[in-house]
Each structure stands twice: as structure tokens, then as C-alpha cells.
Amino acid sequence: MLNLQLKQAQCALSDGQLDEAFRLVQADDIRRHRRGQKLTAKVAKALAKRGREHLAAERLGQALADCNKADDLGGNRAEVGELRHTICKRMEQNQYQHRQRKQRLAQAAEQMDKGWLSVGEDILGGVEHVEADMLAQEASAKRKLVDDAVKKGALALKRDDLEEAIEILRRADLAMNQHPKVAEQIGRIRTAAVKRVKDFLNGGRVDLADSMLRRLSTVDGDTIEVTQLRDAITVCGHAAEHIAGGRPREALQLLTRLKMLLPAAKWLENARAQAQKSAEALESLRTGPLGLVATPATDDVSVPMPVADVAAEPIQSRQEKDDIVKMEASSTIPSKFVLQIDGVGAYYVVRNNSVSIGPISSSARPDVGLMAPPNMPVATIQRQDEDYFIRSADPIGVDDKMVSEKLLADGDKIALSHRCRMKFNLPNAASNTASLLLSSAKMARPDINHVILMDRDILIGPGIGNHIRSNSNSNEKSLALFVRDGRMYCRTQDNVIVDGKEFDSRYGLPLDTPIKIGRMSVVLVGEGV
Questions:
Q1: Tell me: the pLDDT tens digits for 253-268?
Q2: Fewest C-beta atoms under 10 Å: which of 38, 177, 222, 315?
Q3: With bands split at pLDDT 50, 70 and 90, how would you rate the model's confidence at 435?
Q4: Which of 3.30.2310, 3.10.620, 1.25.40, 3.30.420 would CATH assign to domain 2-94?
Q5: Cβ partners under 8 Å of residue 318, min gap 6
Q6: Is there a contact between 262 and 201 (Cβ–Cβ < 8 Å)?
Q7: Strands 501-502 and 515-517
Q8: Quick check: helix, strand or coil at residue 500?
Q9: Residue from 329, 321, 330, 328 nearest 507 by CA
Q10: What does CATH list as the number for 333-348+454-529?
Q11: Both ends of the chain: CA-CA distance in Å?
Q12: How far is it, in rounded angstroms, from Cα 241 to Cα 398?
């Protein structure tokens, strides 16, 4: 039997079937036999030789397997030990090269995503890999897209079709592209757009100027000139809000400031004159006989107390009066609630002066709970008079700076972590209500991405300066929600319908009940989130 095993192993070795020969010489009988030991040494030597061949062909896994087999058969001989050392060193070199290649591919992809195609191609230089070839092809395709978009954009600019030129760059997603031709064309677009915006503002078409600046912002960042024009449009919006709210004196102040921003706007002189006359007429009325019977001032001076017309009040049955009393009693507004507006969105409203923001799983449950790791910092936004401060025990990011306390300004970007970001807004200079736009931060309700930090009122409408932008329909009327005596009221020119019936505006709006205000459907959800 032993002779048969030896013969089988010898034949396998002669035929080059080293794996079979290795299996056969593993038997204890062969290892104890003198002829078997010689044969085992030959198999080990053959395995070491094949291992060196695998190493030369960069088949490192197979080379290491043969080295291990030779080591099992022949012991830790110098030849096998040297082979193992060489294989391990080559593996380390390959792993290092793999990491280097992976890093270069990632860097090249990042630069290409930013629009730096040439930089990405330079990083890829000398990298031989399938993924590198794919990135090079992608860069070539993007360069052709750039050339085509620039060519079409130039034709649009030549025929003075500024909107189409902007749309071409936007569709091609070239806003961040660093190609010299793209940058040159964006510069020409910016120059033409700024001139057109100035013409619109000087001609009194603030709406068209706002629309053009919004278009420009899709392909271009803010420059000093663009920022000044945007400020002018914002001041126009605030002045319009003051006029609509019956505050011509405040509007006059803004129009005077606007004259400095738009010295060539002739319509401003007439607007200022009209605002001056309106302010004087209103002040004359207030100081005249009618002022003696005016409704006493309330805590909210910006929102007039609804005055009941006793003579015109319809006679109500006892049941109707009881229903009104019940609705009034049930309409006490909580400190936190959800404002749902059909076709617009859901907004989480917090009325406290101090609002904590942090992970919902935190031991001390925050006012605004976010879906985030429990170790994320908890920040507090505090309203003090007309200012907002943000504070945190751990440093947080505000406009890319790590701080533990900061006075917030309109447009500040807040980062509780690199995956939890939001933007602070104060859209109306006449209102101290602020809002938080949750960009990458998420609440438990996925449909809520806005938090309203309510002070006295919430302005809802299509124009700029509203806390909630309803839509772009300029014909839609604005409305204001305000709190008085613990109840939510609505100031609007439209009828208010609750459960299909016209609602008496002297009473607070009910909770958890569909409310129709003009064409807008609203629900105040008292449970919050």
C-alpha cells in the first residue's frame, strides 16, 4: 500500500500536479519513510519554484498559498522564508499603491464635480485603472457639454435673450464649473442681468427685477453689486408691507433709504410724496375727534383689536352663542404647534422666547427635536428684545466658524454637526418673528422642514418679506396670524370659513379644525410633533 502511495505521489509530481502530490505526501506513512521524505522534499522544492513563478506574474495570493504548502512540507527553510518575505513585501507595496490610486481617483472625481476638469485630469495622469479611464471619459464628455452650452449661450446673448442664456447654463449644471469659457460667459450674463435689474427698478417694476435676480442666482454667486440690488428689492418689499399694514410713516423711512440705493428711480419721489401725505392724513385722523373713540391699545400694537359692530350684530340663538363660547374656550393656542397649509407645507411653530434645538433622543428633550445622534450638541436660540442669540455648551458652526455664542443675523447658516445644518432668517424688518430652514437637519415628521420662531405675528403671502411664502401668484392677498390673550387671530381681507360656515373674527381660531381663508386652507394642529 505504501509503495502504491509513493508511486502515485511520484507520478503526480512528474506530471506537474503539485496540489495532488502535496495531498498525497501528507500521509504519515510517507513522511516516516525514507523514500517518502525525499519525495516530500522534492514536492516542497517544486511548490517553492511555482510560488516564485506566481510572484513574478503578480499572482500574490497563489504565490503565498504555494509558499505555505512548501513550508508545511519542508519546514522553515531559508529558501521558503525568503520567498515568504518577498511575497509579503510585494503585498504591502500593492496595498499602498491601491490606497494611493483610490485616493487619487477620489480627488480627481471631487475636482471634476466642482468643475475643475483639467485639474482632475492632471491628478489622473499615469493612473492605469478602469475607474481612471471612466473618469477620463466623463471629463471629456463634460468638456464637450461645456463647449456646446457656451456656444448656445453665446448665441442667446447675441440675440439679447438673457433668460434663455441663463437657462442653458442652468440645465447644463454649469453654475460651479470653473472652465474659463463658462466663467467668461457668466460674467457677461451677470453684467447684462445687473443692467436689466437696474432698468426694472428705475422703472418701478420691482417684481420683474426680483424675478431676474432669482434667475441669475441659479448660475451665479453674490457680488457686491448684486447684493446691493437684492437689498434694494428687500427694502421695497418691506415698504410695501408697511403700506399694506397702514403704516405709511415707517414706509416713508424705508423709501428715503431706498433713494440712496436707487438714485435714478424717479418713481420714488412720487411714492415718498404719497407716503408723506398718507402719514400726515393718518396722524391727523388719529389726533382728531375720531381718535377720542379709538379702541384702546393692546399689547400687540401692530395688530388692531377687532371692533364689534354692535348695531349690525345679528341676533343669535342661545345654541349659536353656546357654540361660539365652546369654540372660543377650545382655541387656546399652545406654545408649540404645527401650522399646515394645503399646497404650501407644514411649519413647526414655537412661541417661547428661548428655544432648544437638538437630537430627539437627548436626555433633556429639546423644543425642536431632530433625527440625529444623541451625542450631537444641543443649542439654544434666545430672543432678547429685537435680537436673537444662539448658545451651546459645545462649539457649533455658524457661517463656517466654530462658536459657543453668537448674535444671529438674517441668512446665518447654523451647523450643529456636518450632517445637521439649517439657515436662520428674519424676512421682515417690521416683525421680530424668525424662521429656521432645515436644509440637512430632519425632524420626526418628514414633511416639516421649517421652524417658525414666533414673536407676535406670522405673515403669510406671496410677496417677499413674509415668514411663509404661499406661492408666486401676485393676486393672492397676504394675511397675518397673531396671538392675543392666549388665542390665535387672523387679520385678512378675505372671509374666514370654519366647517363650511363664516367665522366670527372676534373669536380665536379653533385648533385641529380645517379653516378656509380666501383660497388658502389652514389647520392649526395643537399636538405639534
A1: 888 888 888 889 899 8
A2: 315
A3: very high
A4: 1.25.40
A5: none
A6: yes
A7: unpaired
A8: coil
A9: 328
A10: 2.60.200.20
A11: 82
A12: 30
User: Cα–Cα distances in Å, from 491 out to 314, 487, 505, 506?
Assistant: 21, 13, 8, 10
- Determine whether 202 is exposed, middle or buried from the number of CB atoms within 10 Å of its CB (0-12, 13-18, 19+): middle
Q: Count Cα neighbours of 91 within 13 Å in the Cβ-side half-sphere.
A: 13
Let me know: does 408 contact 381? Beta carbons within 8 Å.
yes
Query: pLDDT at residue 151 above 70?
Result: yes
Task: Give the closest residue to 376 by CA, choosing from 415, 423, 412, 424.
Answer: 415
Give the Cβ contact number of residue 138 at 10 Å: 15
For the beta sheet containing 468-469, the strands, ordered from the edge strand earlier in sequence to the opposite edge, are: 468-469, 457-461, 479-484, 487-491
CB 149 within 8 A of CB 174: yes
Could you tell me which residues are beta bridge partners of residue 138?
none
Dist CA 494 CA 439 (whole Å): 33
Higher-confidence residue: 466 or 120?
A: 466
Q: Tell me which DSSP letter residue 351 carries.
A: -
Mean pLDDT on 208-233: 82
**What contacts 116, CB < 8 A, 6 or more positions away?**
178
User: In the prediction, which pLDDT does 300 show?
Assistant: 40
Closest C-alpha to 367, from 387, 345, 382: 382
List the chain domain ranges: 2-94, 175-285, 333-348+454-529, 352-436
d(CA 379, CA 492): 36
What confidence tens digit (pLDDT) does each residue in 309-323 have?
A: 333 344 445 455 555
| Comparison of pLDDT for 477 and 505, the residue scoring more | 477
Three-state DSSP state, 56: helix
Please tell me whether the overall predicted TM-score, pTM, comes out greater than 0.70 for this model.
no
Instruction: Tell me the CATH number of domain 352-436, given options 2.60.200.20, 2.60.40.1840, 1.10.3720.10, 3.30.70.270.
Output: 2.60.200.20
Whether the predicted pLDDT of 298 surpasses 50: no
Instruction: State the amino acid at position 4 in one-letter form.
Output: L
> Do 333-348+454-529 and 352-436 have matching folds?
yes
Confidence check: pLDDT of 299 > 70: no
Range in 9-13, 62-66, 92-96, 151-155 with the lowest mean pLDDT: 9-13
Residue 479 amino acid letter: L
Per DSSP, the three-state class of 457 is: strand
